[in-house]
Amino acid sequence: MSRRDFLLLMAACGVGSAMTLMAPRYATGETRKEEKVSKTDAEWQKILTPQQYKILRREGTEPPFSSHLNDEHRAGTFICAGCEAPLFSSASKFDSGTGWPSFFATIPERVATKTDFHLIYPRTEYHCARCGGHQGHVFNDGPQPTGKRYCNNGLALKFVPEA
Questions:
Q1: 125: part of which helix (H) or strand (E)?
Q2: I want to staple 78 with a disulfide (CB 3.0 to 4.6 A). Which of 74, 88, 132, 140 is the partner?
Q3: Cβ(154)–Cβ(101) under 8 Å?
Q4: pLDDT per residue over 76-107, tens digit each?
Q5: How far apart are CA 130 and CA 109, in angstroms?
């Protein structure tokens, strides 16, 4: 059984359990929270492209269907383009038809949410918990087992294929 098949099976049984298996483990068997990444605007502008800066640091949005990650179907991990924290497993990716990479679950404790009123009505926005980089919005119209759709800006992510 491949790792991807195993994770899909575990996801069907309980997303939290499957994703916990992917959290970093240390010699004690415990998981540790990563240190926060804090940079000045000038430091962020040096390491990010102008488009990434607009999305990650200014809560912008890229045009739909513009990300090459929409067509990424290999096994691996989607990481924050700002700080490289792992945010999503490829096992939780699905085609939502919205034009943005979409996931039904995050890696536990890797994203933080807040309410966004930019379009007048409230939406749930999520950020990388490590660096605060804006990723996208989460909706309650995703597939089972969570019913969630984490709609992500492709420029806010990098993909690391499974070795």
A1: strand 121-128
A2: 88
A3: yes
A4: 999 999 999 999 999 999 999 999 999 999 99
A5: 9
